[in-house]
Structure formats: C-alpha cells, structure tokens
C-alpha cells in the first residue's frame, strides 16, 4: 500500500490525532483500499486541504483505478479538481441530475457552469 500511496509512507509511526486533514484523507483511502473494494466513493476528498496537498491527492486518486483495479466516484465541489480527473461528470441541482457528460463538454458549456457551478468554479 505504501508503495502505491507515497503520502502514507511518512505517516506510519504517527498517531491519528497528530495528522493533518490531508494526511487523514490519505490514511482513509489507504484503509479503504486494504479491503480490496471494487468501488470507492470519495466524498469531498479536497475539503480543507492546502493547494499543494490537493495536487498530490489528485495525482494519487488518478492512479487508483489502474493500480488497484477499483472504480472511483468523486462527490466534489472543486470543479477544476473534478474535471482534471473525471471521465464523466454529473451535475446535480436540488438533488436532481441537471447535466451529465464528458468533463471537456462541461467545461465548454459556460452557461451551464455559470448557472449551476459559478460559486464553485473559481478561475476554472
């Protein structure tokens, strides 16, 4: 597990309460992968993380399907993070699907982004 999730290696001797939010996320993902799941649901894996840690998390998450043969579903509000990783994006509004398709198609649809994601889109 450590070989595939380098963020975890430096955490092996540390207590859980001494870990940052990003480190806790990495340990949570590693712990979930230890059960050899077919599928992972990652609920806002970037929440509260520093930008550098978000970048590292994105690289690690991008490798999960190939390395662990696991499907990954991200529930995430960071549009740039999602569109950088996802093959397919589903936009929800008031609990309903308002759009689904390729990440590149979403980014090309500025009206949709402005209408449903503008508060979260930032500079995307």
From TrEMBL:
InterPro entries: ABC_transporter-like_ATP-bd, BCAA_Transport_ATP-bd_LivF, P-loop_NTPase. Residues 13-46 form the ABC transporter domain. Signal peptide: none annotated. Gene3D superfamilies: P-loop containing nucleotide triphosphate hydrolases. The keyword Phosphoprotein does not apply. It comes from the Bacteria. The keyword Transport applies. Keywords: Amino-acid transport, Transport. Belongs to the ABC transporter superfamily. This is ABC transporter domain-containing protein. It comes from Angustibacter aerolatus.
């Amino acid at each position: 597990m450590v070989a595939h999730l380098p963020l975890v290696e430096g955490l092996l001797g540390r207590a859980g309460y001494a870990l940052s939010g990003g480190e806790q996320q990495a340990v949570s993902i590693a712990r979930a992968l230890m059960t050899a799941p077919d599928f992972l649901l990652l609920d806002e894996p970037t929440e509260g993380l520093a930008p550098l840690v978000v970048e590292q998390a994105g690289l690690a998450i991008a490798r999960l399907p190939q390395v662990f043969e696991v499907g990954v579903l991200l529930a995430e509000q960071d549009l740039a993070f999602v569109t950088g990783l996802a093959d397919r994006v589903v936009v929800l509004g008031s609990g309903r699907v308002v759009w689904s398709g390729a990440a590149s198609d979403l980014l090309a649809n500025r009206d949709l982004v402005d209408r449903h994601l503008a508060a979260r889109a930032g500079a995307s």
